[in-house]
Amino acid sequence: MSYDILQRLTETIASRKGAAAETSYVAKLFSKGEDAILKKVGEEATEVLLAAKGGDKAHLVYETADLWFHCLVLLEQHDLSINDVLIELARREGVSGITEKMGRKND
Amino acid sequence: MSYDILQRLTETIASRKGAAAETSYVAKLFSKGEDAILKKVGEEATEVLLAAKGGDKAHLVYETADLWFHCLVLLEQHDLSINDVLIELARREGVSGITEKMGRKND
Amino acid sequence: MSYDILQRLTETIASRKGAAAETSYVAKLFSKGEDAILKKVGEEATEVLLAAKGGDKAHLVYETADLWFHCLVLLEQHDLSINDVLIELARREGVSGITEKMGRKND
Amino acid sequence: MSYDILQRLTETIASRKGAAAETSYVAKLFSKGEDAILKKVGEEATEVLLAAKGGDKAHLVYETADLWFHCLVLLEQHDLSINDVLIELARREGVSGITEKMGRKND
After folding, report:
1. What is the 3-state secondary structure (H, E, C) of D22-57?
2. Interface of A with B in 42-71 (CB under 8 A)
3. Alpha helices per DSSP H over chain C
4. How is residue A17 annotated by DSSP?
C-alpha cells in the first residue's frame, strides 16, 4: 500500500506544478514560491512536536502526515521526489545498517 | 521499493526499542527519551530548510531522509508506525482528493 | 530605550492576560492556550531563518521582532518576564563571560 | 538593567566577529558561517518549545536566553543589532499599540 499512496501523491503533486493557483491548494502553494512551502514545513514540524507532547496518537499521525505531505511538495519544487529520499535511505542501509550509519554521523 | 525500505527501517527501529543504549544510535536515542527524539526532529526540519535554501539537491535529499528517519523513530516511541501515516494519507485521498482536502483545511 | 520598550511591552502583554479574547490579538492568543503561543514561536523562528537567507535586513529585523514579541507572550503565559531572561543572561556574563560560558556548554 | 546587559552582550558579540575561531564560542560560530548560526536558532527555538511543554520555569528561562543570545549573533552577522529590533518594536507601539498592530497582521 505504501508504494501506491506515496507514488500517487507524488504524481498528484507533480501535476499541480504550473497549474493555475486557484485550482488547488498545492497549485496555490507552488505559485507562492519556495518560501511559502518552507514556512509550511517549519509550521508542520512545530505541530508534530506539539502533537507528540500532547500525547494524542491520532493527532500525532495527522500532523506527521501533514509534514510528510509538505516535504513531498518541497521535493517536487526542487524537481526531486520521494524516490530520491527512499534511495538515500536504502543506500545508508546498504552501507552498514542504517542505525550504525546514523550513529557515526551523529554521535 | 518504497514499501520495502520504509518497512525494513520500521522493523529495525522497533527492534532497537528497549535495547541497551550503547548498541546503536537509535537505541541510545530511545534511552534518552522523547525530548531527545523531538530535538532531533526540530533540528532536522531546520536542516531541511537550510538545505532547500542552499539549492544543493543531494543535500536536500540527505536532510529530508534524516527528517523522515527521525519521524519514524518518533512514531515508534508512540507505538505507531509508518503505516498509520500512510493510512491517514490514503484516507485523505479517498475523501475527495488530497489536494482539495488540504485546501479546505489550510485556506 | 531598550528597557523602556521591553518593559512597556511586558506590561501591555500582562494586561491582556485574562482579558476577553476579542479585545486584542494577545488576549485572543492567551485564550487559545499555550499550544497556540508555541505554534507562533515555531512559525516566527522559521520566518527568521527564511528572512536571514533572503538577505533583506529590514525583513530580518521585522521577523526577529515578531519572534521576540511571541517569546514575551510565552514568558507571561508561564508567569515569567523579560527580566528573568535578562537576569539569566547577566548571570552567565558574571560567571566568566558569556561567550566562554556558552562555549563550555555547546562545544 | 536590561539596556546594560543587552548592550554589553551586543558589544561582546561584535568584538568576536572576525576574531580567531579558537578564541571563543561566538568567534567559532561566526567562522562557520551563517548556516551554523541559523541551525542554532532553529535548535534553540525547538528547545524553548520543549522547555515550555516540560513546565520547568527555570528551564524555559534558560532556553529563551539561549534563543535570544543566538538571535543577537545572527543580527550581528547581518550588521544589525538589538537596537534595530527594539526600534521596530517601538515603532509598532507608536503606530497604534503593539497588540492591535499584531492583531491586524495576524488575524
Report:
1. HHCHHHHHHHHCHHHHHHHHHHHHHHHHHHHHHCCH
2. 42, 45, 48-49, 52-53, 57, 60-62, 64-65, 67-69, 71
3. 2-16, 25-32, 34-54, 57-77, 82-96, 98-106
4. T
Among B32, B50, B67, most D C-beta atoms within 10 A, so best to mutate, is: B50
DSSP conformation class of B17? T
- Between CA C21 and CA D94 the distance in angstroms is 23
pLDDT number for residue D58: 98
Q: CA dist A52 to A48, A56, B32, Å?
A: 6, 7, 16
Interatomic CA distance for residues B70 and C88, integer angstroms: 32
CA distance D65 to D71: 10
pTM: 0.90
Please judge whether A50 and C35 are an interchain contact, meaning their C-beta atoms are less than 8 angstroms apart: yes
**Contact C9/D at CB under 8 A:** yes
Q: Which residues of C touch A38 (CB under 8 A)?
A: 46, 50
Task: Report the complex ipTM.
Answer: 0.88
- Encode pLDDT of C68-88 as tens digits: 999 999 999 999 999 999 999
**CB contacts, 8 Å: B49 with chain C:** 46, 49-50
> What number is the average pLDDT over the span D21-41?
96
**Are A78 and B52 contacting, i.e. CB atoms less than 8 angstroms apart?**
yes
Q: For each of chain A's 107 residues, which pLDDT tens digit applies?
A: 556 899 999 999 999 998 999 999 999 999 999 999 999 999 999 999 999 999 999 999 999 999 999 999 999 999 999 999 999 999 988 764 445 445 445 44
Please indicate whether, in this complex, the C-beta atoms of A50 and D46 are within 8 angstroms of each other: no
Phi, psi of B5 (to 5 degrees): -70, -45
The shortest C-alpha distance from A36 to chain C (Å) reads 10
**Which residue would you say has higher pLDDT here, A96 or D50?**
D50
